[in-house]
Amino acid sequence: MKYTLGTAVLGISALLGSTAFAQDNTLTINSFGGAYETAHRACIITPFEAATGAKVNVVTAYSADAFAQLRAQKDAPQFDVIHFSGGQEIVGAAEGLLAPIDPASLSNAADLYDFAKANLDKGQGPAYSIAAIGLVFNTEAVTTPPTQWTDLLNPDYSEHLVLTDISNAYGMLGFLMLNQVQGGDLTNIQPGLDAVGKLLDAGAVVVSTSPEIQQEFAQNDAWIAPYASDYAFTLRNAGLPSGFAQGAEGTPASFITTNLVAGRPNNELALKLIDMSISPEAQQCFADALRYSPTNTKTELSPEVAADVAYGEAGVAGLIRFDPAAIEANRTAWVEEWNKAIAR
């Protein structure tokens, strides 16, 4: 079933009921701008406002910037709900910037996969979408879809492979997975660096941004790139034949979380917004619009959309979340080593 604004309003009207809110009927949240923010408004914000009469003020701020604002405003935070895609909720919860959530306060919490609600009591908000990192490929040039991360080493792909710089969050996750299948881990990235060196020697290229990936597929005969599931959809919308495959060894995942900010007066209203974010209707809408993977077990996707994401028990079973705190602690040193490896 196609998710529409009308079904959103009906769905969350039943969810939210006619509760009268004692506090100011306004929430301030962040969103990530661009196509993401457009979908965020269509799938959650606008239906929420329509169903509750509340006003949601949106500050466009990516995860790192939003977290910096939250820290700076510790004694008087502006956000009621804050969204992260880089694991900042782990640090924010430890620093007391985020409030614990009682699962009983969320009607949809019971339907989430366990990994999406693992640390609510610690202040880490639920994951409401997943950006799955796998193998984006040209469906016309690659007639047999890749099935594992080691396929990146296939000599047939040598001059048609696009790697993404690890200054890019998705590039980092793809590199860490390549490192893992080559025998490395978060304490040793040398196997991954060695593999990257060999791939570059064989003809692979490195880009820094998503638009550069599209340019390589459109103009420079790129066939395959380790990147996020939503980007295969982006390429296809641009008229390029593309598909997405999860590697059998595992699927690195960027968790997009919705978090309750500590020290704010509108917790009841904020929790209703969080609850809507983890509803199957909202998650179906995000998957349809952007090809993010749902975390609610009751989310129903069309076969076309399901083929582009990590979906269902089997699809999410292979999700891997590399420790965001370890990534952040090592990022500067890793980027330095990466830059040495690709300087050729």
From TrEMBL:
Any one GO CC term of the record? outer membrane-bounded periplasmic space
Recorded hits in Pfam families, A to Z, give:
SBP_bac_8
Report a single Gene Ontology molecular function.
Answer: thiamine binding
Q: Which InterPro entries match?
A: SBP
- What SUPFAM superfamilies does the record tag this protein with? Periplasmic binding protein-like II
Q: Name one GO biological process term.
A: thiamine transport
Full protein name: ABC transporter substrate-binding protein
Leader sequence range is: 1-22
What keyword terms does UniProt attach to this protein?
Answer: Periplasm, Signal
